[in-house]
Design brief:
One of its GO terms (biological process) is regulation of DNA-templated transcription. It comes from Lutibaculum baratangense AMV1. InterPro entries: Ribbon_hlx_hlx. The protein has a domain of about 55 residues. The protein is about 65% helix and about 0% strand. It has 3 helices and no strands. The radius of gyration is 23 Å and the shape is elongated.
């Protein structure tokens, strides 16, 4: 992998921030890339899970009604907390 080229403005910002944190600019870049990769991997996982759930719904029709979920959510933390509503087909 080749060197990373930043815009002059971003390079100046990176230097100032690194100086303020008393670290090398390379350390900030590594942290930023690592955090970005973690977020994007989590996003990809979320999208894959959502796609899988959609495919399952299309095949089975099994779902929860919004009104049932809303009532269930509203019961959380209350003495009358209810169980998960039944799945519907």
């Amino acid at each position: 992998m080749g060197p990373l080229r930043l815009k002059d403005r971003d390079e100046d910002r990176l230097r100032r921030l690194a100086q303020a944190r008393d670290v090398e600019p390379d350390q900030l870049l590594r942290e930023a890339v690592s955090q970005y990769l973690e977020r994007e991997e989590a996003r990809q996982g979320f999208l894959a899970e959502a796609q899988s759930a959609l495919e399952d719904y299309r095949q089975t029709g099994t779902h929860l009604e919004f009104a049932d979920l809303e009532s269930w959510f509203e019961s959380w933390g209350e003495s009358r907390e209810t169980k998960l509503p039944p799945w519907r087909s």
